[in-house]
Each structure stands twice: as structure tokens, then as C-alpha cells.
Design brief:
Length: 91
């Protein structure tokens, strides 16, 4: 029951390293647990890779994603990423 849905939250992710976030990639939060990307891809409007993910509940703003065996840094951000053509997150 550790990662049951009631102990998870749905968040936006912004990749800080080079790469592309895809669905079913593992999200690792140090000292908290693991989650999973539900959808992801490159955003031409933002110029970075973004994703939506289920992660363990808690108060943190950084995590890592396992991309082909390499842990890449991501920032947890509020959604929506873009509204009416305006980027709503700090890039």
C-alpha cells in the first residue's frame, strides 16, 4: 500500500537535462519513493521536454527520471504548462 493512489499526487515535470520524457518512465524521488510518467514529450512552445506523472505524496520540487538507465534531473511544476499561448512556468 506504500504507493497506493491515495498516497500519490499528479504533477507536471520539466526536464532540466537533454533528453525526452516518455510514458512509463520511472520517476525517482530521493528518500520518498518512486512514481511513473503517464505521458510526456517535447514541447516546442517551452523548448524543453515535459511530462505528467504520478509521484509519491510529499513536499519536494525536484526528482530524477530513469531514461535508458541514466537518471536525469527534473523539476516538479504546476500545470498547465501553457495557457492561451503563454508559458506559465519558469524555464
Amino acid at each position: 500500500l506504500r504507493n497506493s493512489p491515495d498516497r500519490q499526487r499528479f504533477v507536471g515535470l520539466l526536464l532540466e537535462d537533454k533528453g525526452v520524457l516518455r510514458n512509463h518512465q520511472k520517476v525517482v524521488v530521493d528518500g520518498v519513493g518512486e512514481g511513473e510518467i503517464t505521458s510526456g514529450g517535447f514541447s516546442p512552445t517551452i523548448g524543453r521536454s515535459i511530462a505528467l506523472a504520478r509521484v509519491p505524496a510529499g513536499d519536494y520540487d525536484r526528482a530524477q527520471v530513469d531514461v535508458r538507465g541514466k537518471l536525469l534531473n527534473v523539476r516538479i511544476v504546476k500545470t498547465p504548462f501553457v495557457r492561451n499561448g503563454q508559458v506559465r512556468i519558469d524555464v
